[in-house]
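Hello Y.,

Per our agreement to keep a running log of every chain we model this quarter, I'm adding this entry. I've kept the format consistent with earlier entries: sequence first, then predicted structure.
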Amino acid sequence: MHIDYVPRGVCSRAFHIEVEDGIIQSVQVVGGCHGNLQGISSLLKGMKVEEAIARLDGIRCGAKQTSCPDQIAQALKTSL
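Predicted structure for the entry above:
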């Protein structure tokens, strides 16, 4: 399954996520903090979607109500 997601309230402009049989195959992020998001994407590869959501959901960036990790969790929820 391919997920194209436009995040809200963060610096990133788009997420492109590949999920196969409930396992994250790849996460590509357009915009945002490149190094940090490249690291997060690498850590998510091979992880179960449910585990990734549990780890990322609700993370905030400073005073913002969301963050790029939280928005990745929101994107992954669309695959359930």
